[in-house]
Amino acid sequence: MNKDKIWLSSPHMGGTEQKFVNEAFEQNWVAPLGPNVNGFENDIEKFLFSKSSKEGAVAALSSGTAALHLALVMLGVKAGDEVLCQSMTFAASANPIAYLGATPVFIDSEEETLNLCPKHLKRAIEDRIAKGKKPKAIIAVHLYGMPYQVDKVNKIASEFDIPVVEDAAEALGSTYKGEKCGTFSEYAILSFNGNKIITTSGGGALITKTPAAKEKAVFLATQARDTAPHYQHSEIGYNYRLSNISAGIGRGQMQVIDKRVRARREMHDFYVDLFSEIEGVKVHSAPNNDFFSNHWLSVVSIDKEKTGGIGREDLRLHLETLNIESRPLWKPMHLQPVFRNAAFYGDGIAENLFENGLCLPSGSNLSQEQKERIKNGILSCLKEYK
Ligand SMILES: *Cc1c(COP(=O)(O)O)cnc(C)c1O
């Protein structure tokens, strides 16, 4: 095996990142504040809101996880509260609930978007209320870049007057009915970890509806210092601001975000093409034109019965021998040992997706030659189509 490794999703620099980082060094803004932090926030605000009638503000933070934590703090989630959360997601969606001593209650997915199922969401809310506790918040995720059923989820949330926290960590550049993901609720979060559609090497953002809410979030993210010549604190604070160095990388990345979305979507088209002739493999795609996914990762489900017995692990292991990375979907939170005592509302959709689903290499920087290797690798596994 001579070949370089093909990753699921690797960093893809645009070319101007180092210029912004160098400026930070030249001006000695080597700190968790500075012109790149402000510039990066402006870039994201413009990207999300400039073509919209909506308004909002962006606070750049040290991670998407930190942003979720702050969102829950801002909503007043406290020890003993319950927070509803999509089960099929990365653990970072749910962990901040536990940081606050609150209890997660997990909800199943629906088949069209793989995200929060409105039916089970409603059932869970009614049941939790009947059991004596109204949930404090709903964490909904645009998984793999696919928008969740925004209208349906928001309708239920407003019916019961429960705020939604929108986890758009994987969905920068995705839209629902023409509006950008990250703009549908009181608080939304983004991630710029190394494997996301753009990266700051590590970082995240909290999106708020108002500049005042952003100001409060930044106050909490910088140790909650009261106005005083000495250090004085009336609230518990956090050290969650993004470094001005990292933000410099982010400014460079924001110059190419549209290109990155296009390239990821082309990878999705590549798989739609490849699997169109192969029985038993479904490429997950937008249910209709309301949903526009950045296709951060391309996802397939494999039906062993129809592929002549070849399942998701067979394909994954086969690709591994060819030095091609692929990965099962997120293991649902209600199946995770750490959350084994949490309540769950659902009927096996997320579990089934986990059993049969596979994420395929989806980077925006895959060469023609690498795509050929992926294609040949997949075809040589699903043998009869060789
Ligand atoms: C990456 C990710 C996060 C966390 O973001 P970090 O920046 O890595 O802390 C949260 N939710 C989802 C769905 C993610 O994919």
TrEMBL record:
UniProt superkingdom: Bacteria
Keyword terms, alphabetized: Aminotransferase, Pyridoxal phosphate, Transferase
CDD domains xrefs: AHBA_syn
GO molecular function: transaminase activity
Short name of one Pfam family: DegT_DnrJ_EryC1
InterPro entries (alphabetical): DegT/StrS_aminotransferase, PyrdxlP-dep_Trfase, PyrdxlP-dep_Trfase_major, PyrdxlP-dep_Trfase_small
Family statement drawn from the similarity comment of this UniProt entry: Belongs to the DegT/DnrJ/EryC1 family.
Protein name: Aminotransferase class I/II-fold pyridoxal phosphate-dependent enzyme
Taxonomic source organism: Salegentibacter maritimus
